[in-house]
Amino acid sequence: WGLVGHSIIVRLAQSQLIDSAPEWIRSLTPWHWNGNLSAMASWADSILYEDNNPTGYANWQWSRMLHYVNIPDWSCDYQPERDCINDQCILGAIKNYTKRLVTEHDHIQQEEALYFLIHFLGDIHQPLHVGFRGDRGGNSVLGTFMNVTSRTNLHALWDVGLIAARLEKDFQKNISLYYDYIYQLMMDETSQIDDNLEQLSEQNINLICSQIYFDENNVTMNASVNFILGEIYYQRNIPIVEQRLVDGGRLLGTLLNRLAKTRPQQP
Ligand code: ADE
Ligand code: ZN
Ligand code: ZN
Questions:
Q1: DSSP codes, 97-150
Q2: Which of 33, 37, 198, 223 sits between 20 and 30 A of 215, alpha carbons compared?
Q3: Distance CA 246, CA 261 (A)
Q4: Would you identify the family this protein belongs to, as annotated (predicted)?
Q5: What is the pLDDT at residue 192?
Q6: Ligand 2 center from residue 132 Cα (angstroms)
Q7: C-alpha span between 178 and 64 (Å, rounded)
Q8: What value of ipTM does the predicted structure carry?
Q9: Over the stretch 237-258, which tens digit does the pLDDT of each residue have?
């Protein structure tokens, strides 16, 4: 996701915090954000760009591969021992940063783990972050969207393009209004999800293998042909985007509540 998707997921999660969790989060958030964790939702992306990070740029490149996991093209299954060697993928990262938040005593390390965790839990709800190796999760599948002449790619369309179109069409580009809408979607939902991580990658794989790569004429998109997508693709997929934002916010909220309970008491 881009800034909007990540901040919505973290805001949804924060709206669900109970008991000691808000206070715990506050203790791990820069004071000037006033406990508002969503300001850190895209920190894990920002450290990857030299502009934001003129001196420390190289220091963080190891974390780039932790934002996603790739599977062999159209294999449509995730095998940890094949696709996530030494936990060097998003599922390993979520597992390890969750663990680190409970066991780590150093405050700076805890903060870092929290900022990575809230970001990766968002990314794992972007279907193409469980992607095909050959086209780098849709990054190499190029084309146009909504008659805009500049080219985009399928990955960027799912990170930001569909959400941007939704904001422009129905929310006067007002992110707060859009957040209120997604929050209501979450609250109106009766079902309780309790996914485990394997189920999350399975859901993403079902989406990429059955939906996301099919254009408006149900032809499979790939890296050697430019796509042309518009209203039909948008209408078909924006409900999926919004359900993933809801699921991401809900699961992150549940996880943070659980972590706040299980973390060792601070001296
Ligand atoms: N780079 C390579 N594969 C990727 C993926 N699936 N998602 C995001 N960035 C990637
Ligand atoms: Zn992405
Ligand atoms: Zn990311």
A1: HHHHHHH---HHHHHHHHHHHHHHHHHTTSGGGEEETTTTTTTT-EEEETT-SS
A2: 198
A3: 23
A4: Belongs to the nuclease type I family.
A5: 60
A6: 13
A7: 29
A8: 0.95
A9: 999 999 999 999 999 999 999 9
Residue 193, pLDDT score: 58
Going by pLDDT thresholds of 50, 70 and 90, the confidence category of residue 264 is low
Tell me the pLDDT tens digit for each residue of 83-135.
999 999 999 999 999 999 999 999 999 999 999 999 999 999 999 999 999 99
Ligand 1, closest atom to CA 137?
A: 6
- Joined tokens for residue 236: 């078909």
Cα 142 to chain centroid distance, Å, stands at 21
Strand partners, 228: 144
Domains located in the chain, CATH noted: 3-262 (1.10.575.10)
130 DSSP β-pair partners:
69
Distance from C-alpha of 208 to C-alpha of 159, rounded to nearest angstrom: 14
Residues with CB under 6 A from ligand 1: 67-68, 70, 128-129, 131, 136-137, 139, 155
Question: How many angstroms separate the CA atoms of 235 and 38, rounded?
Answer: 28
Query: What is the CA(162)–ligand 3 centre distance, in A?
Result: 17
pTM of the predicted model as reported, rounded to 2 decimal places: 0.94
Distance CA 181, CA 59 (A): 38
Matching residue, tokens 């420390």: 56
- Whether the CB-CB separation of 74 and 132 falls below 8 Å is answered with yes
